[in-house]
């Protein structure tokens, strides 16, 4: 029988392991010894720990799976069948799924179905054949069907040796292996959670040359459960008690603060001289803790080690191939093609790196959407834009578009080849050839990506051996198996002992640390509260007896993991608990199950409190915050701290905060130097002045800085309001313009003829086709809906136009009449003698026999925004367009009658009229003068208006503003606290308050 050593987890257990090795060697430092541990990560850590104590020459430290394989290697040489690769089991299960006639048939092609059955096979690995048969006889429903599929898969693997067969061979080998053949066999911290580990434990427990080191935590309940678990496999531990080591808990707001708290505590110890390699941060789930922790450590320049949480599926080469497969399903969709180009340093067939961002801009501007639009829309784009460019620029554009078209044509041809590939070898060959073309060289890649590329090549080569299981695979089957395999393989770990260990609690259990922090504890999440597995119910588990513990055992196992880690820390271990999650508003609950493992609990209310009061700051920013906080707590003004003079970013941030709270116009509230605006040489449009009156910040961003967001054509689901308005304007402009040009406009009392109306709808059809070709109208169904609505609107337009001309006895004389362009300045003189250079385009100008002039502006939206015109014709400066157009057109056409402006709401079939009386013109000049005063002074504050809840929660003036997302959230407070008595703001306030 084996000897059993019980000791507290941690460095004591590591020392006990070394003592066993040393005694067994009996002075021979090269004598063999074998240590069996739970995982390869633990093997690496223990090897490093033993090397620091006294050396590991001749000592094998193997994870249990590798130990089993080593036992079986000798006998396997005489077996003609080769060991099965991991992916072959998946292929066999996939083939069995394809032939099943049960309920799983409907989801047989779903990758998660395959993964669940692979997980089930792993859970049953090492189960004796007689127990497996009992399970099959007792199973019903989905359990019975799943077990039958696994048996079918096992039969399909008759040409290879399965992992279960290898395990049985290993047990037979172990049974006849002479004592001492491998030196002493030491089983370190066994915790049999599956049949393979349990049966291996039972087999080793019966050998005289084996030793078992069983770590205890000092918690009576957890240790009793652990002893009972080992007892079930024939390992009896005496009632030895060890001293408990209660941990310390920090209660924080979110997972990011958990990591910050952990690092501040550990860096405090590191500063005191504790080596980094003797400390660890352990998490139950990699997401989100692993990435947050590594980001913080890399930003602070702190050495760290541990397994890479990324899998092979996250590598550049895997990402590229999977996105190429996506194209088979969606076609040459613009966004899908651009996803491929952005996934890696993609090259074209000539080996040149493709410019992903430039191609994105070109295809967006060209309106490329799907496979049928690449050539036509790129050619249209070149034709429309090439004429505006000079020789070299046009040649560059032509070259870039030609290169893009060749790339897409090559990609299209390759995708056709892929669709016709129906064997593993051709699918693998296509993948290798295509990757070699688009990713021709990895010499300048990071080392991790080069190694990932080599791993990926080996996976592809392994897929070629699957013809026996699925003779004619579909692309979906090929991809399913490929994804399952690359998601299983992790990228290379950073070597242990090179810094702070960051790994899962599963890998760190039972190891020895000077200080350890466990993050991510939460009721139901960790310790886990597992629901029963429908494929392997607790009722079925009971049939298997000790081989398959019940689902509820997972909670006890997680508690053992936490206890082993905390008791293994020389200093009181630290656990953290976050009150909320990063990705939701859901609150977390403290896990009561670990109350006995925790002594003191500290609550940190905010990130700021943690930085200022707890542990040692990790980053330079945290150090600075603590310094500044201590400085101000002593009553000193923050400006007197030396950091303000040495840290430019801090000084700039402080100025920003102070300026925004100063109640005066500053650069951070919207003040711009007038020298940067060049007001005297600026051409203003009436709509630009309206924009400034509505919100000066919007004017600055859109009209001065020219910031805009370019729409993605593939996301256009229907014709936008702006494009719909432009469409109707073009239709009406062409219709009325042709009538003016051909002098066929009906007399005021006459109606448009049927032939003329037919011509209107003919023009409309042409313009709709043009919009559709540019990809601006959405899908086919939405285009038809928009066309039906547009026809109705144009019919109403004709009827309204007949009434309008009859009512005013008017005749249209100009459409889209432009002024102020091509150096043909239009100067508008104000009452104080100031002049403003204007430009614009008037939708339509009518005149009457009495010499009156009517200026018309078509509006395709709602009339709700024009309700204030009756009481305030200029609507606080936001309705300047028509009054300006009326004055300019009266001068241009030298009319001397009345001036009437009209907003024609085409969708609502009504007109909102405004008489340009002398009083309105006086107010117009005053308003423009005030607005010019604000612009020329360089003042561009945000004026958000009241809070509104529809269509989303924002401010009245921000509802349809394209800059809503980038404006400060407290813009309303900023505007309301400005001192509007300042001379600089008086003009603007006069406009907004109607004088």
Give your account of this protein's structure.
This protein is 49% helix and 12% strand. It is of the alpha/beta class. Helix 6 (129-138) runs antiparallel to helix 22. The radius of gyration is 38 Å and the shape is elongated. The model has no long low-confidence stretch (mean pLDDT 87).
Describe the sheet with the most strands: 7 strands, parallel
Helix proportion of residues, in percent?
A: 40-55%
In terms of structural class, how would the helical and strand content be classed?
A: alpha/beta
What's the gyration radius in Å? 38 Å
Total count of strands: 23
The unreliable regions are: none
- Tell me the number of helical segments per DSSP (H or I, 4 or more residues long): 36
Distance between the termini: 101 Å
* Beta-strand proportion: 5-15%
Shape: elongated
Q: Give the spatial strand order of the biggest sheet.
A: 10-11-9-12-13-8-14
Oligomer: single chain
In brief, what are we looking at here?
By secondary structure, the chain is α/β, with parallel strands linked by helices. α9 (195-205) links the parallel β6 (185-188) and β7 (210-216). α6 packs across α7.
Characteristics:
single chain, 995 residues, alpha/beta, elongated
Write the layout of secondary structure elements.
Elements: E1 3-8, H1 11-25, E2 33-37, H2 40-53, E3 59-63, H3 64-76, E4 82-83, H4 86-99, H5 111-123, H6 129-138, H7 141-156, E5 160-161, H8 163-176, E6 185-188, H9 195-205, E7 210-216, H10 220-231, E8 247-252, H11 255-271, E9 279-283, H12 286-300, E10 304-305, H13 316-330, H14 334-342, H15 356-366, H16 374-386, H17 391-419, H18 424-438, H19 447-463, H20 475-488, E11 500-504, H21 505-508, E12 515-518, H22 538-544, H23 553-567, E13 574-578, E14 598-603, H24 607-613, H25 620-633, H26 642-646, H27 648-660, H28 686-694, H29 696-704, H30 721-741, H31 754-773, H32 780-808, E15 810-819, E16 826-829, E17 835-838, E18 840-848, E19 853-859, H33 881-892, E20 899-905, E21 910-915, H34 918-937, E22 947-948, E23 954-955, H35 971-976, H36 983-992
Parallel strand pairs: 1-7, 2-3, 2-6, 4-5, 6-7, 8-13, 8-14, 9-11, 9-12, 10-11, 12-13, 19-20
Antiparallel strand pairs: 15-18, 16-17, 18-19, 20-21, 22-23
Helix pairs in contact: 3-8, 4-5, 4-7, 4-20, 6-7, 6-22, 8-9, 10-23, 11-12, 13-14, 13-17, 14-15, 15-16, 16-17, 18-19, 19-20, 24-25, 28-29, 30-31, 31-32, 34-36
């Amino acid at each position: 029988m084996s000897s059993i050593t019980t000791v507290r987890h941690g460095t004591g257990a590591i020392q006990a392991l070394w003592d066993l090795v040393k005694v067994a060697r009996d002075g021979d430092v090269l004598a063999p010894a074998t240590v069996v541990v739970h995982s390869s990560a633990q093997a690496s850590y223990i090897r490093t720990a033993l090397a620091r104590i006294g050396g590991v020459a001749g000592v094998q430290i193997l994870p249990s799976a590798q130990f089993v394989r080593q036992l079986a290697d000798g006998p396997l040489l005489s077996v003609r069948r080769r060991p099965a690769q991991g992916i072959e089991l998946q292929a066999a299960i996939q083939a069995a799924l394809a032939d099943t006639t049960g309920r799983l048939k409907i989801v047989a092609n779903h990758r998660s179905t395959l993964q669940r059955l692979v997980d089930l096979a792993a859970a049953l690995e090492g189960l004796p054949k007689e127990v497996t048969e009992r399970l099959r006889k007792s199973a019903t429903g989905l359990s019975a069907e799943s077990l039958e599929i696994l048996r079918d898969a096992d039969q399909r693997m008759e040409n290879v040796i399965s992992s279960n067969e290898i395990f049985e061979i290993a047990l037979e080998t172990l049974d006849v292996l002479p004592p001492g053949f491998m030196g002493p066999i030491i089983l370190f911290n066994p915790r049999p959670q599956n049949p393979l580990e349990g049966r291996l434990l039972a087999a080793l427990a019966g050998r005289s040359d084996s030793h078992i080191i069983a770590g205890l935590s000092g918690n009576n309940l957890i240790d009793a459960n652990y002893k009972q678990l080992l007892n079930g496999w024939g390992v009896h531990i005496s009632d030895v008690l060890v001293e408990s080591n209660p941990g310390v808990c920090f209660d924080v707001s979110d997972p990011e603060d958990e990591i910050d708290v952990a690092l501040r505590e550990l860096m405090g110890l590191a500063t005191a001289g504790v080596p980094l390699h003797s400390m660890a941060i352990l998490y139950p789930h990699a997401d989100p803790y692993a990435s947050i922790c590594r980001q913080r450590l890399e930003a602070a320049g702190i050495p760290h080690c541990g397994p890479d949480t990324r899998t092979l599926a996250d590598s550049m080469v895997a990402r590229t191939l999977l996105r190429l497969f996506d194209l088979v399903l969606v076609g040459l969709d613009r966004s899908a093609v651009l996803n491929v180009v952005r996934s890696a340093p993609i090259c074209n067939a000539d080996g040149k790196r493709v410019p992903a961002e430039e191609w994105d801009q070109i295809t967006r501007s060209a309106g490329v959407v799907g496979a049928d639009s690449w050539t036509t829309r790129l050619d249209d784009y070149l034709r429309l834009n090439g004429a505006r460019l000079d020789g070299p620029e046009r040649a560059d554009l032509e070259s870039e578009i030609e290169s893009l078209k060749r790339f897409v044509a090559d990609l299209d041809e390759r995708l056709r080849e892929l669709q016709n590939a129906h064997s593993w070898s051709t699918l693998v060959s296509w993948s290798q050839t295509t990757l070699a073309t688009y990713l021709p060289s990895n010499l300048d890649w990071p080392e991790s990506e080069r190694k990932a590329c080599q791993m990926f090549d080996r996976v592809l080569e392994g897929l070629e051996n699957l013809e026996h299981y699925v003779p004619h695979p579909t692309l979906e089957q090929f991809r399913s198996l490929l994804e399952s395999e690359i998601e299983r393989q992790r990228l290379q770990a950073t070597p242990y002992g090179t810094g702070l260990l960051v790994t899962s609690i599963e890998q760190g259990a039972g190891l020895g640390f000077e200080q350890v922090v466990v993050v991510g504890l939460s009721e139901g999440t960790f310790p886990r509260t597992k629901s029963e597995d429908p494929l392997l119910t607790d009722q079925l588990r009971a049939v298997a007896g000790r081989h398959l513990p019940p689902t509820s055992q997972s909670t006890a196992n997680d508690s053992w993991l936490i206890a082993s880690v905390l008791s293994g820390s020389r200093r009181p271990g630290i656990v953290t608990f976050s009150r909320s999650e990063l990705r939701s508003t859901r609150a977390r609950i403290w896990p009561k199950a670990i109350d006995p493992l925790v002594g003191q609990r500290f609550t940190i209310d905010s990130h700021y409190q943690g930085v200022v009061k707890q542990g040692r700051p990790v980053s330079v920013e945290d150090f600075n915050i603590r310094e500044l906080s201590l400085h101000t707590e002593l009553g000193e003004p923050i400006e007197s701290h030396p950091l303000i003079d040495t840290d430019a970013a801090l000084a700039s941030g402080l100025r920003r905060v102070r300026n925004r709270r100063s109640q005066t116009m500053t650069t951070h509230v919207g003040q711009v130097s007038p020298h940067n605006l060049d007001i005297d040489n600026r051409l203003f449009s009436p709509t630009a002045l309206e924009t400034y009156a509505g919100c000066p910040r919007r004017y600055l961003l859109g009209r001065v800085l020219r910031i805009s967001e370019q729409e993605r054509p593939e996301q256009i689901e229907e014709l936008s309001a702006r494009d719909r308005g432009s469409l109707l304007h073009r239709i009406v402009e062409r219709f009325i313009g042709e009538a003016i040009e051909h002098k066929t406009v009906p007399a005021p009392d006459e109606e448009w003829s049927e032939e003329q109306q037919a011509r209107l709808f003919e023009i409309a059809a042409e313009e709709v086709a043009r919009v559709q070709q540019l990809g601006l109208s959405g899908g086919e169904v939405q285009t038809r809906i928009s066309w039906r609505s547009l026809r109705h609107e144009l019919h109403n337009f004709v009827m309204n136009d007949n009434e309008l001309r009859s009512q005013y006895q008017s005749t249209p004389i100009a459409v889209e009449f432009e002024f102020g362009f091509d150096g043909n300045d239009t100067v508008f003189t104000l009452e104080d003698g100031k002049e403003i250079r204007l430009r614009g385009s008037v939708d339509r100008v009518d005149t009457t026999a009495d010499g009156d002039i009517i200026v018309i502006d078509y509006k395709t939206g709602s009339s709700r925004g024009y309700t204030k015109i009756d009481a305030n014709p200029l609507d606080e400066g936001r309705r300047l367009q028509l009054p300006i157009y009326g004055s300019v057109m009266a001068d241009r056409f030298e009319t001397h009658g009345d001036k009437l402006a009209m907003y024609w709401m085409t969708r609502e079939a009504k007109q909102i009229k405004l008489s340009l009386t002398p009083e309105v013109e006086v107010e117009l000049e005053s308003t423009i003068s005030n607005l010019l005063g604000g612009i020329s002074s360089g003042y561009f504050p945000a004026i958000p208006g009241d809070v509104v809840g529809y269509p989303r929660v924002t401010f009245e003036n921000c509802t349809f503003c394209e800059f809503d997302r980038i404006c400060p959230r407290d813009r309303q407070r900023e505007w309301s606290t400005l001192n509007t008595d300042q001379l600089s703001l008086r003009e603007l306030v006069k406009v907004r308050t109607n004088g």
